[in-house]
Design goal:
This protein is an alpha+beta fold. It has one domain: Sandwich (Jelly Rolls), CATH 2.60.120. It contains 3 helices and 11 strands, in the order βαβαβαββββββββ. Strands 1, 2, 3, 4, 5, 6, 9 and 11 form an 8-stranded antiparallel β-sheet that branches. The protein has a 3-stranded antiparallel β-sheet with strand order 8-7-10, with no helix packed on it.
Length: 212
């Protein structure tokens, strides 16, 4: 697969309103799921008598984190039916397990901590809200080199401003950089190339529970 970009590929995948609902379910917002990019602050908080998982961020602290850092929330491939259906489609098409990482940038003055880098798995990114500039460069042939590339002098092979519904496919080993042009919300679907289990058909249960 080569990198490519498609405009208006998947409209209305995910919205600010849906994110607002999810982040207010405190048990979902565990420290293992909420990933803060950059120099992580030493977060401390108190828990109520009823708290079952002490690692979950309280809402006021989560709000502070969202205002001051770029954040992605991992293990979210079943967070909504639309996201689950998209992950299911990717798994069927490519034959690899998919996760969903919800990326949130509420402050455009913050520089993306990843900078220019390449990944060891394929990624499909859907722009959901706002606008993001994506640059993608040609494939790195020597993957033993540093993943985070300080300087690339070659021209990118893709340079697009993605708007809601736009989608980009970035295979593993292709350097790329995201820059938030506005406050933005996107969902990245990484596809695992390695088998971490003893049998091949181990995928997330994509059945959606309907109650009525």
């Amino acid at each position: 697969m080569k990198p490519y970009y498609e405009k208006n590929y998947w409209d209305s995948l995910f919205s600010w309103k849906e994110l607002e609902y999810l982040i207010n379910i405190r048990p979902l917002m565990s420290a293992s799921r909420v990933n803060i990019l950059g120099d992580e602050p030493g977060l401390k908080w108190q828990n109520s008598e009823w708290t079952k998982d002490y690692s979950c961020l309280p809402p006021s602290l989560l709000r502070e984190v969202l205002d001051n850092y770029i954040v992605f929330i991992s293990d979210m491939s079943r967070s909504t039916k639309n996201i689950n259906d998209f992950a299911k489609m990717l798994e069927k098409e490519y034959g690899f397990q998919a996760d969903a990482h919800i990326y949130i940038c509420m402050n455009t003055s913050i520089k993306h901590h990843f900078g220019t880098h390449f990944d060891y798995n394929d990624n499909v990114i859907v722009q959901c809200e706002g606008e993001t500039n994506w640059k993608v460069w040609d494939e790195v042939t020597d993957t033993r080199q540093q993943r985070y590339l300080m300087d690339i002098k070659d021209d990118p092979i893709i340079d697009v401003n993605m708007k809601p519904g736009d989608t980009i496919w970035i295979p593993k080993n292709y350097p790329h950089r995201a820059t938030s042009n506005t406050v933005r919300l996107s969902v990245s679907f990484p596809l695992a190339h390695h088998r971490t289990y003893s049998y091949e058909d181990y995928f997330e249960d994509r059945n959606w529970v309907n109650l009525y």
